[in-house]
Amino acid sequence: MLIEFSDNLLTGNNTIDTQHRELIGRIAAFVSSCEEGDGKMKAIKMLDYLAEYTEFHFSEEEKLQQEVSYPGFKEHKEKHEEFKRTVDALHEFLEESEGPTAAFVDQVKQQVVDWLFRHIEGFDRSVAEYINYVNNPGRL
């Protein structure tokens, strides 16, 4: 599976798209590190790095939603919390194991990569469209 930002992930909101590029880049680096067998400590540090940026991005995205009174804010925030719990569970898995295994990498691809791509294409695109609508009420 190729993990990279592509045009089908564009939301049309520059702030969101720039942060998604960074987030996906961090995920790709994390998965690559795990696949190369870089070891437990490096994987934990990379996952911490990913979790830190995820927290920043979700916070920024939620601020944008609140600024425009996005009607789906509560559900969107719940999805963010779901993702954070997944990252926490992956962190616990790494702490308890000898390092990132092939099964762990598969789990990351399913629970992080696939989830994020679906989230961007659905939830985040809806947010960007709503922000565009609010900021340009005369354009349909």
Detailed description of the structure:
This protein has one domain: Four Helix Bundle (Hemerythrin (Met), subunit A) (Up-down Bundle). The chain has four helices and no strands. Helices cover 77% and strands 0% of the residues. 19% of the residues are buried. With 140 residues, it is mainly alpha-helical. It starts with 13 loop residues before the first helix and ends in a 5-residue tail after the last helix. The protein has helices at residues 14-35, 40-67, 73-96, 102-135. The radius of gyration is 16 Å and the shape is elongated.
Please provide a brief summary of the model.
This protein is mainly alpha-helical and 140 residues long. The chain has helices at residues 14-35, 40-67, 73-96, 102-135.
Write the layout of secondary structure elements.
Layout: H1 14-35, H2 40-67, H3 73-96, H4 102-135
Helix pairs in contact: 1-2, 1-4, 2-3, 3-4
Can you give keywords for this protein?
140 residues; mainly alpha; Four Helix Bundle (Hemerythrin (Met), subunit A); 4 helices; 77% helix
Number of strands: 0
> Roughly how much helix do the residues carry, as a percent range?
over 70%
Structural class: mainly alpha
Beta-strand residue fraction: under 5%
SSE pattern, N- to C-terminal: HHHH
Largest sheet: number of strands, sense, barrel closure: none
What general outline do the C-alpha atoms trace? Answer: elongated
CATH class identity: Mainly Alpha
Mean pLDDT: 91
